[in-house]
Structure formats: structure tokens, C-alpha cells
Amino acid sequence: MVREFQSVIGREVKVQIRAFQSGDPDALVACVGGGSNAIGLFAPFYDHKKVAFYGVEAGGEGLRSGRHSATLCTGRPGVLHGARTYVMQDENGQVLPTHSISAGLDYPAVGPEHAFYKDTGRAVYVAATDKEALAGFKMLNETEGLSAALESSHALGFLPRLAKKMKRSQSVVLGLSGRGDKDMAQLAEGFHEPH
Amino acid sequence: MNRIDRLFVDLKGQGRKALIAYVTGGYPTLSVMDKAVKDLVRGGADLIEIGVPFSDPIADGPTIQESSQKALDGGITPGALLDWVKRFRKSHETPLVLMTYMNPVVSRGFDRFAREAKTAGVDGVIVPDLIIEEGGPLEESLARQGIHLIYLVAPTTPKSRREQIARRSKGFLYAVSLTGVTGARRALPKDVGAFLADVRRRSPVPVAVGFGISDPAQARHAAAEADGVIVGSALIQRLKNKEPLLPFARSLRHALDRP
Lengths: 195, 259
Ligand SMILES: Cc1ncc(COP(=O)(O)O)c(C=O)c1O
What we know:
By secondary structure, chain A is an alpha/beta fold. Chain A has eight helices and six strands.
């Protein structure tokens, strides 16, 4: 149901991309917390197999730190809140505490359709750390004058890594799921931290 | 014969209602819980329900949530609880039911969980976040070990669905008295009697009512239209306050048995 309503994102991309190019984008990138904005962007392109999907989870302080919310990157199948999907859990099936600089990505499970995309290889799921998200936020501010939400900033933080593997002629659509006005306190704190 | 089935057959013969006592596994510690369970049995509990503490207990109110977290902080694991069941079984034949959320069972694997539960001496399992549409595989794993999977119905469950659920439930059917989570309430919903009567009419297995039952008068009232009552949070509150359970269990027993 979430996919159905959110898919307006991907359907609009299909139409609006025509202002820039004739074919599909080569890659779609979105942050993944519960997974709604990402599945909304991806799903309408499901059958367009040449379009690569990248879901970016919250890497927090790094996957090895244990302080993150990268469910698809580190979890295993379980049942949480009524859905069978990837869940961050310990060996006894207890759900693990999560961490992210963005409240919206702080969730120990994920929409089950992403679990399907992962298992079938349709999408690739990666993690961007708190620091990469801050860098992503800064990048968009400096290049476009836009303040993205900290959630979306994770997708932006991953973008340089992806761009390195792509050709100049290729295109990427990145879902900006929200704006950063709501995150000013977190951003101020994040940018003041000694790096 | 499964101990739960035997219990309800016996009670029916005696014209009595089942007193089902819930405690959170490992709360406040495993040894205090052990003594609490034995006191409850001495006080007249017919069936013991052990909650397997879970990090995200979505069907539970503040009392049981807090006890679950305390027990987890104390290091309790499903394995440690199964070991406790094994020890309990050396001295007691009281039917035992595990109340566990789905994820720890998925994590352990259905067959392994069922085997270990059987070896320990568990008679039934309640999984509040499992629906009948998804319950088949776990039912089968448990049935192979002679363990009952007990389903729940709520006042919001449509009538035809109450019947479908009742037909799948083994041992007894858990009737949730109210719309909400566990926790002692001052009063049960006014229409609980009508709800229970309807459920009981539709159910081929005995019906036990739980959620919100906090004192002997409520237990007696709820039992009028059911085959048993389940008391949980009221016991956990007493454990938290370090109050003895034996007199309370006796007062519940007395309220149920009074003609
Ligand atoms: C701006 C924004 N983006 C993304 C998310 C993450 O949710 P989802 O992965 O379901 O899109 C949230 C969640 O609150 C959010 O506020």
C-alpha cells in the first residue's frame, strides 16, 4: 500500500526526465529508513532492468561500530511489526538498538519489498555514515543552494562513490525525500563536532 | 495427551474454571520467578504462562514491558527459560505455556524451537503477533512435537473470523477482553460478557479470557462466560512491589470456585 501511494515519485520522474534526456536514467538513488520514499522511486522502474537501484541506509558511526541503522546491510530475516523482512537483531532474535544522525532512518527493520529487491539482486543497498551524510548535505548546499533533510543527505553522501563508477554521459536521479529545515539543531551539532 | 487438554477435561468434569497465571520469564530474576511460579501453583493456578521477554513487546502495556526489559537487562534468554522449564518439570506437572513474540521463534527456527520446547516440557505456545494466515508452518512444527499453538481473538475480530481462528487454536482460545494492550484495569468493558458468550459459542476449544483482569471480583465476573481467566500484569505489579503472590493466588482461586 505504501509502495502504491509513494510510487507517484517514480511516475513523476518518468515524465519529468524527458525535459533532460530521451531515455531512462541509468541509476536511481534514495535513502532507506522504513523504505517508503525509495520504493516509491524504484517501483515504477522495476521492469526497466537497465536502471540500477541504490538504496542508502544509515551507516551511523560505521557498520563495525554497531551504532547504525543499516538493516539490509547487516540484518537477517525476521518478523517485526507484522512483516517478514530484514531485521537488526541479536542471536536470540532480540531487536537491536539503532543509531543515526537522522531520526527518520532510525528503524531496525525495513519495508519487506526492499528485502525482496535485495534477495533478488534488483537493488543494491549500501550505507552512508553520519559524516558522509553531513558531507552530502554540504555538497548540495554549495552546488545547488538546497538544504536536504538529513535522511536524504545519506543518499547524497553516497553519490560521490557512485559517480566515480559512472561515465559522464550517464545520469542519476536522486530522491530528495525532504528538506533540511527540520534538522537545523542536528546539523549545527554535526558541523561543530571536531573532525 | 497434552497437559492442557487434560486440564480442561478435568476442570469441566469438576465444573470449575481454569486459573491461568502469567509471569514474565526471568523477572525480576530467574530464582524469584521460580519461587513465584511455585507459589502460584500452590495458591491454585492451574496453568502457568511464561512470557519470553522480547525487546519489542507490541501487545504488552507498561507493566509487562518494563518487566520484560528488566529481565532482558538481567541477561535472560529463551535458552535459559527452556532450561528453567526442564528443572520445573522435575517437580511439577502443571501445564506450561510460553508466550513469545514471533521474531525469537523465527530466529531459532521453527523445528528447533519446537524440539527444544518439547524436550523441556512445554505444552503450548502463544504468539500474539502471529495471524492464522501465516501460522501454518509453526503450527506444523509444534504439532509434530505435540505442542499446541494458541491463537487470540479480540473484541474487534469480526464474528466469522472469530470462528476461523477458534478452529485453528489448539488447547484453548485466548480471548482478549478489551481493545488495547495488556495491563491491569480498574474495570473490564461492559460488553465483555456478550463478547465471550459469542466466542465461546463459536469455539470448539475452551476459551480463556485475559488482558486487564486485576482482582478476584473481575476474575469471577469474566469467568462467568469463559472456561478460564488469565491474570498477568496484576501479578507482575505484586512482584515489582515485592508483595507475596500466594495469598493473591488463593483469593483468585477462591473467587473462581465460590458457588
Ligand atoms: C525526510 C525523510 N526522508 C526519509 C525518511 C525515511 O523513511 P522512508 O525510508 O520510509 O522513506 C524519513 C522518515 O521519517 C524522512 O523524514
